[in-house]
Design the sequence.
């Protein structure tokens, strides 16, 4: 069965990157799912499974974020013995990446080459302001356009009021209340996908990401777990990233339910997620203002007149400290790698 890759976002940028690897035994494809060294990839001729080639493994040994992930465009090679190997990850246009739990501040790619990162936050039982701010910083840093999707809007008498309230935490970010049960907001969300475009969903377990994917796909493609009424959380989390092509073109990437998200060197994303705070800081009299008791501090003035909530400032400070620590750790890891001997070269295409 033939599948036009342009419907999934294959364009001149990726075609140009693939050109020097274009040979009779090699084809481009997009990763639907990656599982422990085996990737499920969609090519023009259909879905195939591929093991990781040596060059990919060598690169991943240096940087785990080089491993293929859902949404990656890759080069596959077909061998005479009917094996298929994934030989190269083409340069990513956008990357949604979080810090792993190790102390070296390495990154884990959650999704790649998406046009929009939708932060999915349920209205029931209650939105978590700090989580929304953290996830929006991650979304901004990805290079994609952020979107805040409020699921389960049918559980609120006035979802528009909640959307306006959360919009204050998301300067420059559209806020979309959605109810799958009532069909509210789905057409607006579909309009942001469309042929050639990809939306990645980011949020905690039980936020309704898989339910959204199924609604957009028009069929059950992702398992949906029962939700506990007391806290609104799912009993299980999706354990893998999965790209789902949609009828009519475009795709959605469902990421695992996330309890906590560690930020890497996301200074740019943090600044955009807290554009209100950074805008005030830029107006302070002194460039090195600590926003405590310095004269001419615009941040303290905004706190005093109530235009900047204290919780918002504290959240910014907390995330900025985290980014500074992780940036230092990352720099130290890269310095150690530069001092280490390079690994032996691997077979390439």
Sequence:
């Amino acid at each position: 069965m033939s599948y036009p890759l342009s419907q999934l976002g294959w364009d001149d940028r990726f075609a140009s990157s693939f050109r020097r690897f274009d040979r009779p035994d090699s084809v481009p494809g997009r990763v639907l799912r990656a599982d422990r060294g085996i990737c499920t990839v969609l090519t023009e001729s259909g879905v195939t499974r591929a093991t990781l080639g040596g060059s990919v493994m060598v690169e991943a040994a240096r940087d785990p974020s080089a491993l293929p992930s859902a949404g990656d465009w890759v080069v596959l090679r077909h061998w005479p013995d009917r094996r298929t190997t994934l030989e190269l990850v083409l340069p990513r246009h956008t990357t949604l990446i979080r810090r792993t739990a190790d102390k070296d501040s390495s990154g884990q790619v959650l999704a790649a080459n998406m046009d929009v990162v939708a932060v999915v936050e349920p209205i029931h039982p209650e939105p978590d302001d700090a989580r929304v701010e953290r996830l929006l910083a991650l979304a901004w840093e990805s290079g994609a356009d952020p979107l805040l999707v409020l699921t389960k809007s049918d559980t609120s008498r006035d979802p528009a009021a909640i959307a306006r309230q959360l919009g204050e935490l998301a300067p420059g970010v559209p806020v979309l209340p959605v109810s799958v049960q009532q069909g509210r907001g789905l057409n607006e969300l579909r309009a942001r996908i469309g042929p050639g475009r990809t939306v990645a969903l980011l949020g905690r377990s039980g936020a309704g990401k898989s339910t959204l994917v199924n609604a957009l796909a028009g069929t059950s493609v992702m398992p949906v777990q029962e939700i506990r009424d007391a806290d609104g959380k799912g009993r299980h989390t999706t354990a893998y990233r999965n790209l789902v092509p949609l009828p009519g073109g475009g795709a959605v990437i469902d990421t695992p339910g996330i309890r906590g998200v560690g930020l890497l060197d996301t200074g740019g994303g943090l600044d955009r997620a807290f554009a209100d705070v950074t805008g005030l800081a830029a107006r302070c009299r002194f460039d090195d203002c600590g926003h405590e008791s310095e004269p001419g501090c615009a941040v303290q003035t905004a706190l005093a007149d109530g235009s900047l909530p204290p919780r918002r400032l504290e959240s910014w400070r907390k995330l900025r400290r985290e980014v500074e620590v992780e940036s230092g750790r990352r720099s130290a890891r890269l310095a150690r790698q530069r001092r280490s001997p390079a690994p032996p070269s691997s077979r390439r295409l």
Notes: The radius of gyration is 22 Å.
